[in-house]
């Protein structure tokens, strides 16, 4: 009986982490960290247990051409963002101030990528110029939301955009835009509306195991799992 195909989320993790230079064991440890070292938790989300080193090695061998074809040169917009008198990407000064005061001093974001156990291995800065531009783009749409949630959503957009560039695919923002528009994190009612929209085919399902599933959406959900609606109202944009 043939082995079942490796879940799309794990494939994306292996491809991304291979491009970052992680070993097979390093990839396994990093994936395990995302699910708190729990196969049960991983299976409830992906439908499969966490892949072991031999599975990762086998998939890397199969995908070696695609992985090797990625350019090792880091795009300038994926360099760390820093405050400047005139932002090179035309980010408004009040948004630059917000990033500098609400995100950069937050060690949980900058060091741990807002993931509790243990941290995600990420060779890019938590706030690249790309991520800062997405924060700027989404700033008005996410007015009043918790700073970590704003950063996490911008990080999700920028991560998937960068992955699409590496794979030479067009980045379709509409599924993410629909998610942001309905704000399923804000209340049980919003969550039900979003689930209904997915079920009715009004928007695609971003969870792994689906055609448009993305690892960055799963990571985003892990990053915001302890942020409640009331916390968002108290710690929103422009607030401490």
Explain this structure.
With 240 residues, the chain is mainly α. The protein folds into 2 domains: 8-68, no CATH class; 76-234, no CATH class. The protein is 53% helix and 0% strand. The protein has helices at residues 8-19, 24-34, 39-46, 53-62, 64-68, 93-103, 107-110, 129-138, 147-166, 174-182, 188-199, 215-223, 229-234. α2 (24-34) packs across α4 (53-62) and α8 crosses α9 (147-166). It starts with 7 loop residues before the first helix and ends in a 6-residue tail after the last helix.
How would you sum up this structure in a few lines?
The chain is mainly alpha-helical and 240 residues long. The chain is 53% helix and 0% strand.
Short key terms for the protein model shown above:
240 residues; 13 helices
Strand content: under 5%
Q: What does the overall shape look like?
A: globular
Number of domains: 2
Largest sheet: none
Order of helices and strands: HHHHHHHHHHHHH
Q: Bin the helical content.
A: 40-55%
Provide the structure class.
Answer: mainly alpha
- Terminal-residue CA separation: 57 Å
The average pLDDT value, as a whole number, equals 83
Radius of gyration: 18 Å
Q: How many β-strand runs?
A: 0
Count, helices: 13
- Poorly predicted tracts of residues: 65-74, 230-240
Map the helices and strands:
Layout: H1 8-19, H2 24-34, H3 39-46, H4 53-62, H5 64-68, H6 93-103, H7 107-110, H8 129-138, H9 147-166, H10 174-182, H11 188-199, H12 215-223, H13 229-234
Helix pairs in contact: 2-4, 8-9, 9-12
């Amino acid at each position: 009986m043939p082995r079942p195909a490796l879940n799309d989320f794990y494939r994306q993790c292996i491809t991304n982490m291979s491009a970052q230079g992680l070993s097979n064991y390093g990839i396994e440890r990093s994936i395990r960290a995302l699910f708190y070292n729990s196969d049960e938790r991983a299976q409830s989300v992906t439908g499969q247990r966490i892949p072991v080193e031999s599975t990762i090695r086998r998939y890397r061998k199969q995908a070696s051409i695609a992985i090797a074809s990625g350019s090792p040169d880091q795009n300038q917009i994926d360099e760390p963002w820093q405050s400047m008198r005139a932002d090179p990407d035309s980010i408004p000064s009040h948004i630059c101030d917000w990033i500098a005061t609400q995100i950069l001093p937050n060690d949980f974001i900058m060091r741990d990528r807002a993931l509790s156990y243990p941290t995600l291995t990420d060779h890019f800065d938590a706030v690249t110029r790309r991520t800062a531009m997405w924060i700027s783009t989404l700033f008005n749409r996410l007015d009043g939301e918790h700073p970590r949630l704003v950063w996490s959503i911008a990080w999700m957009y920028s991560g998937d955009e960068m992955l699409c560039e590496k794979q030479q695919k067009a980045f379709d923002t509409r599924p993410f835009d629909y998610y942001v528009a309905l704000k399923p994190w804000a209340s049980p009612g919003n969550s039900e509306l979003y689930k209904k929209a997915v079920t009715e085919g009004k928007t695609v399902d971003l969870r792994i195991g689906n055609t448009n599933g993305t690892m960055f959406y799963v990571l985003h959900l892990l990053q915001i799992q302890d942020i409640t609606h009331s916390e968002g109202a108290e710690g929103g944009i422009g607030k401490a």
